[in-house]
Amino acid sequence: IVVTGSDDRLWKMWALPDGNTIMTGEGHTDWLSGCCFHPSGTQLVTSSRDTTVRIWDFSKRGCILTLEGHAHAVWDCSWHSCGDFVASASMDNTSKIWDVNSERCRYTMCGHKDSVNSIEFLPFSNTVLTSSADKTLSLWDART
Question: Mind telling me which residue stretches traverse the membrane in this protein (predicted)?
Answer without folding.
Answer: none
